[in-house]
Design goal:
Number of strands: 8
Distance between the termini: 40 Å
Largest sheet: 8 strands, mixed
CATH topology: Rossmann fold
Number of domains: 1
Strand order of the largest sheet: 1-3-2-4-5-6-7-8
Radius of gyration: 20 Å
Structural class: alpha/beta
């Protein structure tokens, strides 16, 4: 089953539940508008509780938050509101409607960009980055990584096909790959299988490079491959094997953008990848990484920076 179909079924179930609650309220004497509002509010509150619980679970196994990224009450509420809004918009609107797409701009000097979504998602996750690439006239394509619960290594050939298609359509010798969450690990699996020569840059967002404790709650081979045994525990064997096959040259092609308040990748320090260019952020949740203006600006800066080859760039940097 594709994530698109699964999300549509989940939405249908939510609509039926809202209707049932509304009908029950009307039977007990509520007016039409009151009954409808109660039905919708009930579903929204459940979604809100699930989102809040993700933050609670992630904090139980969190890595220390650096002082420059610590949040007060107002900042935490803003972050939660942004993450909840992003989750609702992406899962209830963008992804159920999304189809993989390709945009080609022949005169662009920047290598084309291939966008890879994360676990349980599809190409609709990139609904906010794609318009920025369009505005900059940068060729790009999205693909859906399927099957939904498949082996991450199994996605490498689909990525190779997508990258090859982009190179052929644009005449470029290299591509830039941007991967959110599991998509970043899939990009690294692609580098391992097909080599790094064709990758001008790999940019990962909120990727559990050393695993996440919350992956134990997921289903499928890919969830198992992202597991981590506790805050100070080791990553799973697959992640260790993936790292063992990467040399300094491969790591130097990777930019890892991660947030110290990730509500899915925990401990959050799992986003830091040794030998890569690491950009640490605060006050942003996991899903909101694909929508937050600061994050999108950082991604675009990394993409545009590929044009200036040969300029030395620092390995680590914190974005406030």
């Amino acid at each position: 089953m594709s994530s698109r179909l699964l999300l549509r079924l989940i939405l249908l179930v939510q609509v039926l539940i809202a209707c049932a609650i509304g009908a029950a309220a009307a039977w007990f004497g509520a007016g039409p508008w009151q009954a409808a509002a109660l039905g919708v509010a009930s579903v929204v509150l459940v979604r809100l509780a699930i989102n809040a619980n993700n933050f609670v679970m992630s904090r139980r196994v969190a890595s220390p938050t650096p002082p420059e990224h610590q949040l007060g009450v107002a900042g935490a509420l803003r972050m939660f509101g942004e993450e909840f809004g992003a989750s609702m918009l992406v899962s209830s609107w963008h992804m159920p409607r999304a189809r993989p797409h390709t945009r080609i701009y022949p005169d662009c000097a920047t290598p084309p960009v291939l966008l890879l979504h994360g676990y349980g998602c599809n190409s609709g996750y990139w609904a906010h980055l794609a318009p920025r690439l369009d505005a900059a006239g940068i060729s790009h394509a999205t693909i859906d990584l399927e099957p939904l619960t498949g082996d991450i290594d199994g996605f490498a050939d689909a990525i190779e096909e997508g990258a090859g298609r982009l190179r052929k359509q644009t005449g470029a010798s290299q591509v830039i790959v941007v991967g959110h969450s599991m998509g970043g690990l899939a990009a690294r699996a692609w580098l391992r299988r097909h080599g790094s020569a064709q990758a001008a840059r790999v940019i990962t967002l909120g990727t559990p490079h050393h695993g996440t404790c919350l992956a134990a709650l997921g289903i499928g081979v890919n969830a198992t491959q992202m597991r981590r045994a506790g805050v100070d525990g080791p990553a799973c064997a697959w992640l260790n094997e993936l790292a063992a096959h990467e040399d300094a040259a491969t790591r130097s092609r990777i930019t890892s953008i991660y947030t110290h308040h990730d509500n899915i990748v925990a401990p959050q320090s799992s986003g830091h990848l040794g030998g890569a260019r690491n950009l640490a952020m605060g006050g942003v949740g996991h899903v909101a990484l694909g929508r937050n203006p600061r994050v999108l600006a950082a991604v675009m800066d990394e993409i545009m920076g590929v044009q200036t080859a040969g300029r030395a760039r620092p390995v680590s940097h914190a974005i406030h």
